[in-house]
Amino acid sequence: MGQHEEKNFKITIALPERAILECLYLTPEKMDLIECYHILSGLPNLRPKLVQELLEKCSSIKVKRLFFYLAQKTGHQWFDFIDKSSIELGQGDRSIVRNGVYNSVYKITIPKELAEQ
Q1: What radius of gyration, in Å, describes the C-alpha atoms of the chain?
Q2: Can you give the pLDDT of all 117 residues of the chain as single tens digits?
Q3: 51, β-bridge pairs
Q4: Rounded alpha-carbon distances, angstroms, from residue 74 to 2, 55, 71
Q5: Domain range holding 50?
Q6: What's the burial of 74, exposed, middle or buried (CB within 10 Å: 0-12/13-18/19+)?
Q7: Is 99 inside a domain boundary?
Q8: Beta-strand runs (E) in the chain
C-alpha cells in the first residue's frame, strides 16, 4: 500500500501489483474482465517478488486463476519469475461468465471475446 498526500488529506492507495488483484476480485459483477486484461497488459514492470507474495496470501481461487491466465496471455517477462508451484489454485472448475470458453489449463470459463484476443 502506498500513501498519497494532497493538500490537507492523505489517502492509502493500492500498489499496481495489488490493484490488479483487486480488479480481478470484482469481475465480472463490477469490473469487466476484458478491461482487466487491458490494464494488466499495460503493467510490464510488476515486481515478481511482490506478486508472488500477494498470490500466496490471496484466498480467492478465482482471482489467482484469472491472474495466471491473463498474465500468461500478456506475455510479460515478470511472469516467468513467479513460482507457480507454490500457489494453490484449488480443485474443480470455475465459471466466470455464462456461455463462455473453457480454458482447461486454469479450469475457468472466460468470455469468448477475451479468448480470441
Answers
A1: 15
A2: 777 788 888 888 889 999 999 999 999 999 999 999 999 999 999 999 999 999 999 999 999 999 999 999 999 999 999 999 999 999 999 999 989 999 999 999 999 999 988
A3: none
A4: 25, 18, 5
A5: 2-88
A6: middle
A7: no
A8: 2-6, 9-13, 94-95, 101-103, 108-110
The label of the residue with cell 471475446 reads 113
Q: How many structural domains compose the chain?
A: 1
Measured distance CA(77)–CA(6) in Å, rounded: 34
CB atoms within 10 A of CB 108: 22
| 117 in any annotated domain | no
Say if CB 96 and CB 109 are below 8 A apart: yes
C-alpha distances (whole Å) from 36 to each of 8, 20, 68 are 32, 7, 12
Picking from 13, 108, 16, the residue whose alpha carbon sits closest to that of residue 54 is 16
Name residue, grid cell 493500492. Answer: 14
Cell digits for 17?
A: 501489483
Q: Is residue 17 part of a domain?
A: yes
Establish if 78 belongs to a structural domain: yes
